[in-house]
Structure formats: structure tokens, C-alpha cells
Amino acid sequence: MTAPLSPTDGRLLAGLAASAVRARLSGVRLTATIPPSGPLHADGASFVTLELAGTLRGCVGTLEPVRPLHRDVVHNAVRAMQDPRVPPVTAADWPALDVKVSVLDRPAALPATTRQALLAALVPQVHGLILTDGTRRATFLPSVWSKLPSPEQFVDALLRKGGWREWPPDMRALGYGSTEYEDRSPRRPL
Fold this sequence. Notes:
The protein folds into two domains: 7-105 and 178-183, Hypothetical protein ph0010, domain 1 (Glycoprotein, Type 4 Pilin, 2-Layer Sandwich); 108-176, Hypothetical protein ph0010, domain 2 (Dna Ligase, domain 1), CATH 3.30.1490.150. Helix content is 26%, strand content 26%. It has four helices and nine strands. Strands 1, 2, 3, 4 and 9 form a five-stranded antiparallel sheet that branches. Strands 5-8-6-7 form a four-stranded antiparallel sheet, covered by helices on one side. α1 (7-26) crosses α2 (69-80). InterPro entries: AMMECR1 (IPR023473), AMMECR1_dom_sf (IPR036071), AMMECR1_domain (IPR002733), AMMECR1_N (IPR027485), AmmeMemoSam_A (IPR027623). It comes from Dactylosporangium aurantiacum.
């Protein structure tokens, strides 16, 4: 992101994600109005998280900017509806579905040649984390700290998510921040 988002831009992004989900569930074309220029048109990276009564229903995103932020949010919202880790989102879910958009800062390398070095470098509640060995990659958003509050829990769960049983010698760690915006339920049924 080249320019910071205003609270209005953030609300607009969360509403845009919710509108994309609603359009897909109802089989209609997405119609949304965004400002003709500004930070929503700059390339940006985002994650969209869908939750039903606090239970994950989908979370999909991009770690590096690849398209204008408003398009990235719509793309990730639609993909989150079909997250392969959980059942697909349905029209029955819509009235109680919470939609969250996380806008990511650019990842930066963390001094982490070992698990212990990474644990010492992590800042709970601040760092999102990407682990990669050049073949596989896994990430947790900063919001995951609310479920895994200690650095040990956070790193161990991310290692499991990435399919690593132990710390590989070629592991790289990158940290990033994010800003979260929400469009919360309740909603009218479709």
C-alpha cells in the first residue's frame, strides 16, 4: 500500500467483501461503488475471513500485492467461500456470517535461522508470520494470536499447518502487520 486507508475506506472494503459473498450466494452480478481513484486502486494484499458464530467458514488471501486492493478483496472473498479446509459457505449461512478483511503490510524477513531465534523475534498480537522452506509456505494472520497467545503455540501450530514436523535447516521467516475491517452479522436472509 502506498497510501494509508481511512476508516471509511476500510468499511468500504469490508462491505465490498460482504457484497461479493452475497452476490455469489444469490447468483447475481456484483454491483458496488468505490471511489474512482485513491488507495483502494493501489496494488495491495488482503485476506478475507468468513466466520459463522465464531467458527471459521473460510480464510483466503494474498501475501504480496498482485492487483488493485479492491479487486484483491473481491477475489479473496469469493475464494474464501470455497476454502477446502471447511464446508462451502451456503445461503443458509448468510444471515449470521461475519466478514473480515485484513489488509496486509509488505512482509519483511525476521532474524530466524532457528525456532528459538524466531520465538525471540516475534511480537505477539503484532506479527503475522510466513514460514517457507522454498517448497512449502504457511502463514498466520496477526489475528490468530487471539487463539494461540504464546509464541510457542503460534509457531508450533504454523509448523503443523505447513506440514513440517521440525524446523528445517533452510526455513525462512517473514513477519507482517495487518489492519482488520469487519462487516458483521446479522443480515437479512437471501
